[in-house]
TrEMBL record:
<dbReference type="InterPro" id="IPR015422">
    <property type="entry name" value="PyrdxlP-dep_Trfase_small"/>
</dbReference>
<comment type="similarity">
    <text>Belongs to the class-V pyridoxal-phosphate-dependent aminotransferase family.</text>
</comment>
<dbReference type="InterPro" id="IPR020578">
    <property type="entry name" value="Aminotrans_V_PyrdxlP_BS"/>
</dbReference>
<feature type="domain" description="Aminotransferase class V">
    <location>
        <begin position="30"/>
        <end position="375"/>
    </location>
</feature>
<protein>
    <recommendedName>
        <fullName>Alanine--glyoxylate aminotransferase</fullName>
        <ecNumber>2.6.1.44</ecNumber>
        <ecNumber>2.6.1.51</ecNumber>
    </recommendedName>
</protein>
<dbReference type="InterPro" id="IPR015424">
    <property type="entry name" value="PyrdxlP-dep_Trfase"/>
</dbReference>
<dbReference type="GO" id="GO:0005777">
    <property type="term" value="C:peroxisome"/>
</dbReference>
<feature type="binding site">
    <location>
        <position position="367"/>
    </location>
    <ligand>
        <name>substrate</name>
    </ligand>
</feature>
<dbReference type="InterPro" id="IPR015421">
    <property type="entry name" value="PyrdxlP-dep_Trfase_major"/>
</dbReference>
<dbReference type="Pfam" id="PF00266">
    <property type="entry name" value="Aminotran_5"/>
</dbReference>
<dbReference type="InterPro" id="IPR000192">
    <property type="entry name" value="Aminotrans_V_dom"/>
</dbReference>
<dbReference type="GO" id="GO:0004760">
    <property type="term" value="F:L-serine-pyruvate transaminase activity"/>
</dbReference>
<comment type="subunit">
    <text>Homodimer.</text>
</comment>
<dbReference type="GO" id="GO:0019265">
    <property type="term" value="P:glycine biosynthetic process, by transamination of glyoxylate"/>
</dbReference>
<dbReference type="GO" id="GO:0008453">
    <property type="term" value="F:alanine-glyoxylate transaminase activity"/>
</dbReference>
<keyword id="KW-0808">Transferase</keyword>
<keyword id="KW-0663">Pyridoxal phosphate</keyword>
Length: 399
């Protein structure tokens, strides 16, 4: 027998939470950490457009535009290009889950937190993980990489292009050729560097490249562009076992994005429609500005910031200018200061976010990110003024 609706309503024992009866409050902040960065009004407005069905033909057109925007941003002609419904970690997992089978050898370069994460992801899905390790800020020579490829014979080699936990832009040239020599796929993380530092997927022979939406692209967090070339497709579509994740299985995702040549796109999951609208707009802004202009602009503003930081008496964590990531600058924690107090002061008095280190760089650095929309000399001045003020007002605890 059905219970009456009135009985059901009276059976509610948990009252509406008081916080839900108050309006949503979101502060305005300068997001000058390593991400998310501030989202320009045009991208926010795109994300605020009406929701349409994720399987409507207009949405397919928008997804096709996104694919083209990613191909431009990555400098690739890869057909297998799409955006993950999820943050950068979704792209990391998608790459590893699809091209690696349990028991296969994977080589991961670890010079900050991102290599640590990928090593853990690969280990969780049953790969034999080998690591090449350097302290945060260190980089790997092509000779070191070749030695490890020859020794471990991995099916996949992972490298972070923009190591945001250390502020390092890793050299890429020649590594794609090495991976081909040893019959290995090259997977590169460009979450923190895409649009800010030069990267050419096809020319640099990167087999799988992913990024995030919330850094130099200035879209809200929650979508992650990714692209696989033919070598990567060959490996992932000729596997013996199914990938451990249903959501990230590229046989389904390639159909959802219209990449598998089948006449119909089937329901797989409901994509983040608003996130895709915003991502499309952010890719459009990058296309209008031009990649080379964007790279040049990030470099110029970063150099302006670096000079200002040195004028304040601060030391930059990455000594070699050519290895510094233009989007995320790392400052060695100034002697005597508690880094958390400096950050708390800037949020409280300047509404301005910088962050500390992450993973192995915790306690070593303060990170300043000026990415995309946030990348300007006037914002660099704001960051410098906030830091200078914090250095004056926060107590020095150690000698
Ligand atoms: N890789 C790098 C280099 C990153 O900077 C980040 C985000 N800080 C990620 C991966 C992970 O991205 P997400 O937080 O969007 O999952």
């Amino acid at each position: 027998m059905c219970r009456k609706l009135s009985n059901l309503i009276s059976s509610v024992t948990i009252p509406p939470p008081a916080c839900m009866l108050l309006p949503l409050e979101v502060p305005n902040r300068y997001l000058f950490g390593p991400g998310p960065s501030n989202v320009p009004p045009r991208v926010l407005a795109a994300g605020g457009r009406p929701i349409i069905g994720h399987l409507h033909h207009e949405m397919y057109e928008i997804m096709n535009d996104i694919k083209k925007g990613i191909q431009y941003a990555f400098q690739t002609n890869n057909h297998m290009t799409l955006a993950m419904s999820g943050s950068g970690h979704a792209a990391m997992e998608c790459a590893v889950f699809n091209v690696v089978e349990p028991g296969e050898s994977v080589l991961v370069s670890v010079n900050g937190v991102w290599g640590e994460r990928v090593a853990e992801i690969a280990e969780r899905m049953g790969a034999k993980v080998h690591t090449l390790v350097k302290a945060p800020g260190g980089y790997f020579t092509n000779e070191e990489i070749e030695k490890a490829l020859a020794k471990h014979k991995p099916v996949l080699f992972f490298l972070t292009h923009g190591e945001s936990s250390a502020g390092l832009a890793h050299p890429i040239d020649g590594i794609g050729d090495l991976c081909r020599k040893y019959d290995c796929l090259l997977l590169v993380d460009s979450v923190a560097s895409l649009g800010a530092a030069p990267l050419l997927m096809d020319q640099q022979k990167i087999d799988i490249l992913y990024t995030g939406s919330q850094k130099a692209l200035n879209a809200p967090p929650g979508t992650a562009p990714i692209s696989f070339n033919d070598r990567a497709c060959h490996k992932m579509f000729n596997r013996k076992t199914k990938p451990v994740s249903y959501l990230f299985d590229m046989t389904h995702l390639s159909n959802y994005w219209g990449n598998d040549g089948k006449p119909a796109r089937d329901y797989h999951h409901t994509g983040p429609v608003s996130g895709f609208l915003a991502l499309r707009e952010s890719l459009a802004i990058l296309a209008e500005k031009g990649l080379e202009n964007s790279w040049r602009h990030h470099k110029e503003v970063a150099e302006y910031l670096w000079k200002g930081l040195e004028d304040l008496g601060l030391k930059l964590f990455i000594k070699d200018k050519d290895l510094r990531l233009p989007s995320v600058t790392t400052i060695t924690i100034p002697d005597g200061y508690e880094w958390k107090e400096l950050l708390a002061y800037m949020i409280k008095h300047h509404q301005l976010e910088m962050t500390g280190g992450l993973g192995p760089s915790i306690g070593m650095v303060i990170r300043v990110g000026l990415m995309g929309y946030n990348c300007s000399t006037s914002n660099a001045d704001k960051a410098l003024a906030a830091l200078s003020d914090a250095l004056k007002h926060c107590p020095k605890r150690k000698a």
